[in-house]
């Protein structure tokens, strides 16, 4: 497996920095418990043990048979070091008990990974009787953390050894000298049989780590591509990945926004939790993509407004008589709302707001012909954002907090537009907010961190970032 990768191994790396995210990336901290869980699940759900066991049992004569390691003129067979081995035949490994996984993170290097398992053997004893044995084995390995040629984090097996524990005789008779031969044989054979299990487990873990990076669709408007911004770091409790999110339009154009002026102060991670920090930069860039695609623009017609909201020249003449009082009564109005500049997202302690600048044209709908613009307004709409995590995304739902407008132009002389703010706020709530929330339905993608599910994670809004924490 090593030959498939071009590796940059992390020899002597410092431990993760204490609470400062210098780049604009999405910071992921993977707890060691989560890594251990992923490795354990790879053994439970995958064919790793079955594949290894199949390789062992495919030798028809067994490990100690006439064609095995100890048979004929083999190393320990008849005529070899121990002549007593001719009394055994067909001893095979028939069962590998599901290993118990334990791991320790090695700062600046990788992982100390241990698998404790039991090996079941079956064959014929010296008297031709059924012989069954069970041996406890501990597989100990050192695994380095590196970066593959694809730019993904990768775990690489550097050293593997096995320690043979207690051997139990479950059935049959086996003299002490023969038991010693079996012990020596297993000591020789098991590293070659069980160390590949570690390699297979790491392959599964590396697939999960590799899924951190890649292209994630953002609805029909574009995508977010995640890549490593810096080398992975490792501490006593977690692996830290600084992931760079790149937002692209459907055409493949990068939507880029100015970087924040100062680093984000990331809160410390508690033990037995995994954490992902979503920076303000990603929020602003996603809204920039919405604005670029015109998803924030809307034409509001009478069909989109409930009957209890005033919508004719007669209904609104009392608010701005200088303009609407001069028009024929009962004419339907139209609103055209354009967002020509990118919205601004603000993340502060426990609160998220979105400010959307808009140009609003108020038109009257003529019985025949093209609607005419009565006046133009420049407005700022401020929305409260409710943030909710799912398994792989951060979802936003907006509600209007306030709206302020200024007169930009009018077919009549200038007038005070403040009496229209409450009416416009009602129109925005009933006709515009729902469209916004539909556009945001795709959610902000989160990088895939092993199989961590953030749906039930704790969400904390800090200055210029959102932090999601989930217990391992």
From TrEMBL:
GO molecular function: lipid binding
InterPro entries: Bactericidal_perm-incr_a/b_dom, BPI_fold-BPI/LBP, Lipid-bd_serum_glycop_C, Lipid-bd_serum_glycop_N
Domain Lipid-binding serum glycoprotein N-terminal: 29-271
Keywords: Disulfide bond, Glycoprotein, Secreted, Signal
Signal peptide positions (record): 1-19
Residues covered by the Lipid-binding serum glycoprotein C-terminal domain: 270-470
Entries under Pfam families matching the protein: LBP_BPI_CETP, LBP_BPI_CETP_C
Presence of keyword Signal: yes
SUPFAM superfamilies: Bactericidal permeability-increasing protein, BPI
GO cellular component: extracellular region
Location(s), subcellular: Secreted
Family of the protein in this entry: Belongs to the BPI/LBP/Plunc superfamily. BPI/LBP family.
Function according to Swiss-Prot or TrEMBL: May have the capacity to recognize and bind specific classes of odorants. May act as a carrier molecule, transporting odorants across the mucus layer to access receptor sites. May serve as a primary defense mechanism by recognizing and removing potentially harmful odorants or pathogenic microorganisms from the mucosa or clearing excess odorant from mucus to enable new odorant stimuli to be received.
Name used for this protein in its record: BPI fold-containing family B member 3
Organism this protein belongs to: Molossus molossus (Pallas' mastiff bat)
């Amino acid at each position: 497996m090593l030959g498939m990768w071009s590796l940059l191994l992390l020899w002597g790396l410092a431990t993760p920095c204490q609470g400062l995210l210098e780049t604009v990336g999405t910071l992921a901290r993977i707890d060691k418990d989560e890594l251990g869980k992923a490795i354990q699940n790879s053994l439970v759900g995958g064919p790793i043990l079955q594949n290894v066991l199949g390789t062992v049992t495919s030798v028809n004569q067994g490990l100690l048979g006439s064609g095995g390691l100890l048979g004929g003129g083999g190393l320990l067979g008849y005529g070899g070091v121990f002549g007593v081995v001719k009394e055994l035949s067909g001893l095979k490994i028939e069962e590998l008990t599901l290993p118990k996984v334990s791991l320790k993170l090695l700062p600046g290097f990788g992982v100390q990974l241990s698998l404790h398992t039991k090996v079941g053997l079956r064959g014929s004893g010296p008297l031709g009787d059924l012989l069954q044995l069970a041996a406890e084995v501990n597989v100990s390995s050192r695994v380095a953390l590196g970066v593959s040629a694809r730019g993904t984090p990768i775990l690489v097996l550097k050293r593997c050894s096995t320690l043979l524990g207690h051997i139990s005789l479950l059935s049959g008779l086996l003299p002490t000298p023969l038991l010693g031969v079996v012990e020596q044989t297993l000591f020789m054979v098991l590293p070659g049989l069980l160390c590949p299990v570690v390699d297979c487990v790491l392959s599964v873990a590396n697939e999960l780590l590799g899924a951190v990076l890649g292209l994630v669709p953002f609805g029909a408007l574009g995508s977010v591509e995640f890549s490593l911004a810096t080398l992975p770091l490792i501490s006593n409790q977690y692996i830290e990945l600084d992931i760079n999110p790149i937002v692209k339009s459907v055409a493949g154009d990068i939507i880029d926004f100015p970087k924040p002026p100062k680093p984000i102060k990331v809160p410390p991670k508690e033990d037995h939790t995994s954490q992902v920090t979503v920076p303000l930069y990603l929020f602003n860039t996603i809204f920039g993509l919405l604005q670029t695609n015109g998803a924030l623009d809307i034409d509001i017609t009478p069909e989109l407004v409930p009957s209890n909201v005033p919508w004719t020249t007669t209904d609104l003449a009392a608010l701005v008589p200088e303009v609407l009082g001069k028009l024929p009564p009962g004419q339907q109005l139209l609103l055209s709302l354009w967002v020509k500049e990118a919205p601004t997202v603000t993340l502060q302690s426990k609160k998220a707001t979105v400010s959307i600048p808009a140009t609003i044209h108020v038109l009257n709908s003529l019985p025949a012909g093209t609607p005419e613009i009565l006046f133009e307004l420049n407005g700022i709409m401020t929305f409260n954002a409710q943030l909710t995590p799912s398994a792989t995304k951060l979802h936003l739902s907006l509600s209007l907090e306030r709206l302020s407008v200024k007169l930009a132009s009018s077919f009549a002389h200038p007038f005070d537009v403040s009496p229209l703010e409450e009416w416009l706020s009602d129109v925005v709530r009933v006709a515009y907010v729902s469209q916004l929330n539909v556009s945001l339905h795709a959610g902000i993608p989160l990088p895939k961190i092993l199989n961590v599910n953030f749906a039930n994670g704790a969400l904390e809004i800090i200055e210029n970032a959102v932090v999601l924490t989930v217990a391992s």
